[in-house]
Amino acid sequence: MRLTWRFWVGIASVLAGLVAPYLARAETKLTYFNGMWRGSGSDRNSPLESLQRTSCQTTIQADLRRMNSNTVCDGQAGLHKVIDFSITLDGNQFTGDLSQSTIVRGSAASASVLKGSVVGRKAEDTARFQVLFPGLVPSAIVNFKIHSPSSYSMHVTSLGLTLMDVIFNRTDQR
Q1: Could you tell me whether strands 140-148 and 112-122 are parallel, antiparallel, or unpaired per DSSP bridges?
Q2: Domain at 27-170, CATH from 2.40.128.20, 3.40.630.10, 3.40.50.1700, 3.10.129.10
């Protein structure tokens, strides 16, 4: 039996139909994150401190171009951290602001507040951005990764060391 070019075109069409869904994954929209999330992992206030187990709760409100997030984390060794995050998306790039307030429960020290700007880029199921703080405070690199429709992770580094590594799970129904 002699195979014609039509046969090969037919085979190529079938293969393209099977492979295309994997190659043409839809990009995740900011609205994916709307709602309540709960997470656990490790956290510290600076690269000089020890990592501690932490539990976090996040509330996110987003539309197609803007996202506002409020995250509260409580560490087992007393670290209490509140992070407010606001970005605007333009294509695959985004800019915004971040404010972080930290205090160690049981300590006489007053709360530390950092305010910085955010610049980054998103891809299909990841986002990577840099938080730039004024003065001598080193910048932080944040990586978000979506693991499933109900789970994402956040990994934060500064000076090459992990500051925060938390996996979040959706707590509300979509």
Answers
A1: unpaired
A2: 2.40.128.20
Contact 80, 73 (CB under 8 A): yes
Query: What's the pLDDT tens digit per position in 114-140?
Result: 999 999 998 888 899 999 998 888 899
Residue type, position 133, single letter: F
Contact yes or no for 125/145 (Cβ under 8 A): yes
Residue type for 1, please? Answer: M
Question: CA-CA distance, 78 to 135, in Å (whole number)?
Answer: 27
Phi-psi region of 64 (alpha: psi -120 to 50; beta: other; left: phi over 0): alpha
The pTM score is 0.80
Q: In the block, which residue shows the tokens 């580094």? A: 157
Residue ranges covered by each domain of the chain: 27-170
Q: How far apart are CA 70 and CA 83, in angstroms?
A: 6
Q: Rg of the chain over CA atoms, in angstroms?
A: 21
pLDDT digits (tens, 9 = 90+) for 45-86: 888 899 999 999 999 999 989 999 999 999 999 999 999 999
Those residues with Cβ within 8 angstroms of residue 82's Cβ, 6 or more apart along the chain or in another chain? 70, 71, 72, 73, 100, 101, 102
